[in-house]
Design brief:
By secondary structure, the protein is α/β, with parallel strands linked by helices. It contains eleven helices and twelve strands. It has a single domain, classed as Alpha-Beta Barrel (TIM Barrel). The strands form two sheets. An eight-stranded parallel β-barrel has the order 1-4-5-6-7-10-11-12, surrounded by five helices. The longest helix has 11 residues. The two termini are about 15 Å apart.
């Protein structure tokens, strides 16, 4: 299985933004036209583009679907989510050209639904997003744009999905998201032990090329690159070469 380096575009109001620790009040806007950003990433050689509909994640709808459809034509395979709540949402994203649908809140709240979707559409077409925050010695799973706490934990749901044939797991340490503090390598070492059959995508805090290499050593099978790329801390070409 190859190691995937995925540049990310987070959408809010159709524009490219980044949040700090998922806080909608701590937003930085980087570009008004996400198509231009995607074109740069495609030219640099990216195979995949990770897209997050931040409006949709909070509202529970596909707020930026039209923009996502445009990005799916940029020459890369698109992994997209944010606001997916029903199987109809899944179908709409597939119809828009998305290769893999990212399911987050619904994967936490309604795992049986998502397990059915894996069977109906193929596990390879989904990424289970279990973004996590460390609380009282537990890896908790906030939902709805990380604003609501849920009872289930990462250590409960990740193996549950692995047993039902899931292939891809995206896991962000929320406390590091957008903070340029480096990946939480202990988290990815832990997942490599708990769910070795899942291709884990590391997300949250990358600041250097060494962080990418360290994530691979820790057992991750891919990395999501957001703020560090947008701020030019390294080039996508160099990241892909890792």
């Amino acid at each position: 299985m190859s190691f995937e380096v995925m540049p990310a575009i987070d959408l809010r109001g159709g524009q490219v933004v980044r949040l700090k620790q998922g806080d909608y009040a701590q937003e930085t806007r980087y570009a008004s036209d996400p198509r231009e950003v995607a074109a740069r990433y495609a030219t640099a050689g990216a195979r995949w583009l990770h897209v997050v509909d931040l409006d949709g994640a909070r509202a529970g709808d596909l707020s930026n679907l039209a923009v996502i459809e445009t990005l799916a034509k940029a020459g890369m395979q698109v992994q997209a989510g944010g606001g997916v709540r029903t199987e109809d949402d899944v179908r709409r994203l597939f119809s828009a050209g998305v290769t893999r649908v990212v399911v987050g809140s619904v994967a936490i709240r309604e795992p049986e639904w998502v397990a059915d979707w894996l069977g109906n559409h193929g596990a390879e077409r989904f990424t289970i997003a279990l973004d996590t925050r460390r609380r009282d010695e537990r890896w908790t799973l906030p939902s709805a744009g990380w604003m609501e706490e849920e009872a289930r934990t990462l250590d409960e749901l990740a193996p549950w999905y692995a047993e039902r044939g899931a292939r891809h797991l995206l896991c962000t340490d929320i406390e590091r998201d957008g903070m340029l503090a480096g990946f939480n390598l202990d988290l990815y070492r832990h997942l490599a032990q708990v769910v070795p059959q899942l291709a884990v995508q590391a997300s949250g805090g990358v600041r250097s090329l060494d962080d990418i290499r360290a994530a691979a050593v820790a057992g991750a099978r891919g990395v999501i690159l957001g703020r560090a790329l947008l701020e030019g801390r390294f080039t996508l070409q160099d990241a892909l070469a890792c």
